[in-house]
C-alpha cells in the first residue's frame, strides 16, 4: 500500500532505463483509473474498505506522477511536492476513518458481490503492474520502491476480497470496517512519514545553503 511505500530514499532520482519511465507512465494511468473505479464502486456498494483501497490507488498514482514530474527539478521542489502528497494522503485517511465510524453507527452491511468483483479487478491490475516492474526490482532505490509498492498493494487487494467474503458469510459490516480502519490508519501513518522526511530534506537543504 502507498502508506507503506513512501519512497523515502532515491524516489526522485532519474532512472537510467527509459523502459522504467514508460513503466511508470503505464502504472500511473492504471492506478488513476482504478482509483475512479473503486471510488465509484465503494459508494455503490457501501464498502468503506473499497473506499480505502481507492485512496491507496490515488496515493500510488500521485506517487508515480510526482516521480515523473519532478525527476529533473531541484531537491527543494521535490520535497515541497512530497508535502502536498502527504497532506492529501492524510486527508483521505481521516475521511476513510470518519466514514468507517459513520457506517459503524448506521450498522448497514455493504454489498459483498460488488466488493469482491472490484477487489478482484484491483488485484489483477496491481499484480500486472508488479509483474511489469519485476525486472527493475534490483535497480536503484526508486526502481525497487515502486515494485515493492505494487507488490504490497496486491496484498491489500487480497484483504479487501477477504473482507467481502467475511461480509457475505456473516451479513455484518465488521469485516469491511476492520479492513478499512487498518488501511485508513496506514494512510495517515504514511502521510506522517512522508511529511517528516520532506521537512528534514527542506531543513537540510536550507542548512546546506547557509
Automatic annotation (TrEMBL):
Pfam family, one: Cation_efflux
Subcellular location: Membrane
Segments traversing the membrane: 23-45, 57-75, 82-101, 113-134, 154-171, 177-195
Residue ranges of domain Cation efflux protein transmembrane in the record: 24-202
Xref: Gene3D superfamilies: Cation efflux protein transmembrane domain (1.20.1510.10)
Annotated signal peptide: none
Main location: membrane
Gene Ontology cellular component annotations, sorted alphabetically: membrane
UniProt KW keywords: Membrane, Transmembrane, Transmembrane helix
Organism: Ramlibacter lithotrophicus
Protein name: Cation transporter
GO molecular function: monoatomic cation transmembrane transporter activity
Membrane-topology descriptor: Multi-pass membrane protein
Amino acid at each position: 500500500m502507498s502508506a507503506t511505500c513512501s519512497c523515502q530514499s532515491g524516489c526522485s532520482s532519474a532512472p537510467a532505463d527509459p523502459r522504467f519511465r514508460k513503466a511508470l507512465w503505464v502504472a500511473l494511468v492504471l492506478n488513476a483509473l482504478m482509483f475512479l473505479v473503486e471510488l465509484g464502486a465503494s459508494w455503490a456498494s457501501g464498502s468503506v474498505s473499497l473506499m480505502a483501497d481507492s485512496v491507496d490507488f490515488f496515493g500510488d498514482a500521485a506517487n508515480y506522477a510526482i516521480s515523473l514530474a519532478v525527476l529533473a527539478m531541484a531537491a527543494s521542489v521535490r520535497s515541497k511536492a512530497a508535502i502536498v502528497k502527504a497532506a492529501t494522503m492524510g486527508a483521505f485517511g481521516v475521511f476513510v476513518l470518519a466514514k468507517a465510524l459513520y457506517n459503524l453507527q448506521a450498522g448497514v452491511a455493504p454489498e459483498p458481490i460488488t466488493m469482491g468483483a472490484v477487489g478482484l479487478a484491483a488485484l489483477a491490475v496491481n499484480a500486472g503492474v508488479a509483474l511489469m516492474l519485476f525486472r527493475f526490482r534490483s535497480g536503484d532505490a526508486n526502481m525497487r520502491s515502486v515494485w515493492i509498492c505494487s507488490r504490497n498493494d496486491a496484498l491489500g487487494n487480497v484483504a479487501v476480497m477477504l473482507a467481502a467474503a467475511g461480509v457475505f458469510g456473516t451479513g455484518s459490516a465488521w469485516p469491511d470496517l476492520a479492513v478499512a480502519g487498518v488501511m485508513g490508519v496506514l494512510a495517515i501513518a504514511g502521510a506522517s512519514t512522508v511529511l517528516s522526511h520532506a521537512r528534514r530534506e527542506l531543513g537540510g537543504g536550507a542548512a546546506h545553503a547557509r
